[in-house]
Amino acid sequence: MPASSAKRKLESAARWLLYATAFTPIIFSGNFLYPFIVPRVVFFRIVIEIILVIFLLLWWMGGIKQEEKLSLCRQYSALALGIYLVVNMVSAFLGESINNSIFGDIERSLGVYTLIHLYLFYIFARTFFNSNSWRIYFNWILGAISIVGMYGIIQYYPNVFGITLFNSGPGRILSTLGNPAYAAMILIFGIFTAVFLGLEFKNSKLKYLYFAVALVLLFAFSLTDVRGAYLGLIAGIGVFFTAYAATGASRRVKALFLSLLVVGAISAGVLFTHRDRDFVKSLPILGKLAEINLQQPTIITRFIGWKAAWKGFLDRPILGTGPENFYIAFNQHFDPIFYTYAGTEPFFDRAHNHYLDLLATTGVFGFLAYVSIVASIVYYLRGLRKKRRISLSQLAALSSLFVAYFAHLFFVFDDINSLFLFFAIIGFVEYKFYRNPLLEFSEAKTDSRKPRRAALACIIGALVLWAGFNFNVKILSASKNILTATLYQSAGDAQLAAKHYQAGSEFSAIPRKGIVDKYVNFLAALANQYHAIPNEAVKALFEKNSLILEKILKEEARKNPLDPVTYSKLAAVYTARYVVYKQDADKDLSLAYVKKAIEVGPNRPQYYNLLAESYILFGEPKKALEAVNASLALNPDYTETYAYRISVYLALDEVEKAYDLYEEMFDNSKFFRGNNVPARLGKRLIDQGEVEKAEHVYNLWVLSHSNDSRIITNLVIVSLLLDKPEKAIEYAKKAAEINPVLETEVQYIIEQIQKNNIDELLKQLQN
Q: How many whole angstroms separate alpha carbon 390 and alpha carbon 384?
């Protein structure tokens, strides 16, 4: 095959593979742990790695044309993105956890490793795409985002379409992204891309098709209920109108768009001043924005996260904690007042503000590198208009897209979907400015440097294949195994569950915090199973898996020494060992690791509560009370802590105090999660002969967990104890309504009540 023919085929293959990346947002699979993240990130990385092999082949065959390639110094976006990548790499190597920075936790699957793939994607798009290729690619992107939009609409209206998808029904749509914020981000790209492509067909009816697609995507966007995205979209539209008002082709056009701006501003003011009215609340997008109040709990908790990010930046202002290490700043500067506004423990591995996240994790150098990317975009957009290589309307559409995107990032963070689209549009803008590729390959038949290129290409290619297997195939395997393990665990097959947990956790190159979380829960379940019914087979299985988990978590603690979650999981392993072996050494290690978690996250009440729970288990309720009091001293509004205080009272045999506190919590409309506390409190009251109080506890329990059949079963018991058989039957029927699986059991209960076999039935129900 002639060299020129082989070159063309390889370049064509590279283009088709680049087209395939457009489908990244619609790739997900329920066969993996983190189904909306792991499959698509691995897909994107594998595609880029295949293109890299093609790139190396083309480079080996003829090298790069020296006379035609543009100077890198003139490729401002390429240079800015390259600097941004280098700063992230340096920050990773000098940061607090290089392992976390390079690969990120599996739940995000980003980090420097994925950022390298994104940069390569940009290089390849700039190298292999011409004007027609870019047009095709953005049509493919629009097609993929249209699927995202329609999937979300069908998800929201299952009865209209007769199709039931995951998370169907009214509510914030997840679409194929698994997160409303991600869906909103992608739909913003789709809306402006459709408008941009439609504007190319100025004198063709085809433009109306693109505009119609934009409207459909806008409707899907309105179903995400993401206020940050809504503000971003409005900012983008405002820029679009402003561009026309300032630089319109005629006074009439300028006046029209200026009028639209003025009318829009006045309408926004009127709607905001009347935001409490039902009509305003019912408006899509605008109604949600009208609800914005700086005193809303979700906004206050966001500010708390931002404050922690800023303090983290001041601690490490040059290069930050390292990419993917925001949790360090968050834990070290966590403000316990968070729980006054939120009832659950936060998972903040991002600042929920891209710019503050940059400052905290990559320091001022990372932030400035990102600013240089923005500056290159502004430079090229201005240049495109001056060179008349783009119409004013298309320039306005592109500018609006960037403004909407950057505004949205003030309230959220990127993922693989938005990042690859961002890099693609930067590449497109730079291509439009220069109208030629970044690199071109030579077809020279004789080249003295070809042998050296061949050797280097083989080395790089081998590294690519090795990395592709280890950081893609093995990650997919780990994700698959952990999910399979949870399914076997649910089915009651502990042996197969353990086998898959072990297989899913054995790959040590990547951070395993997100992988071993379910494994730790499995180990605790094994310990409880053995404690309830001692069995040597269960004990042997427990021993093997506890040693595996102990080793894994200690490795993770060495790699991420400032992560309190890892220490809390280690404590859980030793607690489980204590449940099985009753050895003081395990108790001491469990307490030591809980205290280490407190040392790393000193203002997190959850770890003081964990310490209290440990002391209760180890038979030291007075120390547990001290831990609970320390938690309440951080924030007395954290409702969950009161569940631990009730447990402490029960451990101290102060049942009346526990009862009074439980009742007080409900009187103050404070509800905590979980069923164990009211269940144990009710049982203790029954044991003391205070059945009426137990009934009261269960009735309060219903208020916070109204759809829990376990509560209703307990109410059946107290009704029988209080000689209220008709009430017991009523509760039994309700339990069957809540959980149809109980239908047979409920029928048996009713039959026994009707036969007046109350005493025997109570024995069965209370066992």
A: 6
Rounded to whole angstroms, the Cα distance separating 487 from 480 reads 11
Could you tell me how many residues make up the chain? 767
Q: How far is CA 700 from each of CA 613, 697, 708, 715, 719, rounded to the nearest angstrom?
A: 23, 5, 13, 11, 15
What CA–CA distance (Å, rounded) separates 380 from 375? 9
350 touches 413 (CB < 8 A): yes
Cβ-based neighbour number of residue 203 at 10 Å: 6
Angle value at C-alpha 199, between 193 and 205, nearest 5 degrees: 115
Q: Which of 440, 437, 401, 400 is nearest to 133 (CA)?
A: 437
Count of beta carbons in the 10 Å neighbourhood of residue 45? 24
- H helix and E strand count, the chain: 36, 0
AA identity, residue 243:
A
pLDDT digits (tens, 9 = 90+) for 282-308: 666 666 666 666 677 778 888 888 999
> Mind spelling out the 3-state secondary structure of 278-293?
HHHHHCCCHHHHHCCC
> In angstroms, what CA-CA distances link 164 with 25, 116, 146, 541?
20, 38, 19, 40
Sign of CA dihedral 485, 465, 25, 86: positive
Rounded-to-integer distance, Cα 440 and Cα 428, Å: 17
pLDDT (average), residues 268-272: 67
Query: Which helix (H) or strand (E) segment is 147 a member of?
Result: helix 131-156
**Global pTM value:** 0.90
Q: Look up residue 472 and give its DSSP letter.
A: I
User: By C-alpha distance, which of 270, 274, 322 is closest to 560?
Assistant: 322
Whole-angstrom distance, CA of residue 259 vs CA of residue 242? 10
Amino acid at 456: L
Give CA–CA dist 145/484, Å, rounded: 30
Query: What is the helix (H) or strand (E) element at residue 745, kind and residue range?
Result: helix 743-754
End-to-end CA, the chain: 80
pLDDT of residue 594: 96
Whether 712 and 742 have beta carbons less than 8 Å apart is answered as no
Alpha-carbon distances, residue 373 vs 84, 423, 567 (angstroms): 8, 10, 39
Assign residue 225 a region (left: φ > 0; alpha: ψ between -120 and 50; beta: otherwise): left
Task: Tell me the C-alpha distance between 705 and 676, whole Å.
Answer: 12
DSSP state of 619: T
User: Cα 7 to the chain's mean position, in Å?
Assistant: 41
Task: Answer for the pair 324, 361: CB distance below 8 angstroms, yes or no.
Answer: yes
User: Would you say 325 and 105 are in contact if contact means Cβ atoms under 8 Å apart?
Assistant: no
Q: Quote the CA–CA distance of 8 and 12 in Å, as a whole number.
A: 6
How do residues 42-61 score in pLDDT, each as one tens digit? 999 999 999 999 999 888 88
Burial 529-559 (b: 16+ CB within 10 A, else e): bbeeeeeeebbebbeebbebbbebbeebbeb
- The Cα-based distances of 171 to 44, 153, 223, 225 in angstroms read 30, 11, 8, 8
The dihedral region occupied by 550, where left means phi > 0, alpha psi between -120 and 50, and beta the remainder, is alpha
Q: What pLDDT digit, counting tens, does each position of 459-517 carry?
A: 888 898 888 888 899 999 999 999 999 999 999 999 999 999 999 998 888 888 888 88
Concatenate the DSSP letters of all residues of 327-388 into one string. Answer: HHHHHHT--TTHHHH-SS----SS-SSHHHHHHHHHHHHHHHHHHHHHHHHHHHHHHHHHTT
Is-contact 554 570, C-beta < 8 A?
Answer: yes
| Least confident interval from 23-37, 44-58, 281-295, 406-420 | 281-295
